[in-house]
Amino acid sequence: MSAPDGGFDSGNGTDSVAPSSTESSADSPVTNPQADNPAWNPVLEGMPEVFANRARPHLRQWDDNYRQRETELRELKEKYSPYEPYLTVDPEAIQYGLGLVGRLQQDPMAVYNALNEHVRQLGLLKDDQSANGNATDPNAVN
To answer: What CA–CA distance (Å, rounded) separates 124 from 111?
Structure first.
């Protein structure tokens, strides 16, 4: 919408597009140490400087948000990089393995007896042998 003086009416009660003296100095590239991102050129070229000055803070915020997300992604990748070799492993197999390790820590003899029984059922051991070749009594001392 045009303002009576030919400027742009922003709808906020001001009839002119001329920035205030504090706005132009705060957003000017001369006083702002942050340089423009070259990726902004297609957006800013051909844009009147007064509008470009108003757009720059928003573009900087977009860049800052992108850099923050990029940093978060890099940290997340670093955090989970030790697990990369297991990406192709079935999650159920991992859960089973962790359960087995937990059971070994809680009751190693129960795991030994169950494994011994399983090996017998497969026919790999005779009834009078244990997994280590001794008598079937797992509590027997060598």
So the answer is: 17
Question: How many other C-beta atoms lie within 10 A of the C-beta of residue 19?
Answer: 17
The answer to pTM > 0.70 is no
For residues 20 and 49, give the distance between their C-alpha atoms in angstroms, rounded to a whole number.
14
Q: Say if residues 35 and 44 touch (Cβ distance below 8 Å).
A: no
- Mention every residue, 6+ apart, whose C-beta is less than 8 A from residue 72: none
- At 22-67, the pLDDT tens digits run 444 444 443 344 688 999 999 999 899 999 999 999 999 999 999 9
Query: Are 136 and 129 within 8 A, CB to CB?
Result: yes
User: Using N-to-C axis directions, what is the helix angle for 91-106 and 108-121, rounded to 10°?
Assistant: 120
Domain boundaries, the chain: 21-82, 89-142
**DSSP structure string for 18-71:** PPPHHHHHHH-TTT--SPPPGGGHHHHTTS-HHHHHHHHHHHHHHHHHHHHHHH
Closest CA to 40 of 68, 18, 61, 71: 61
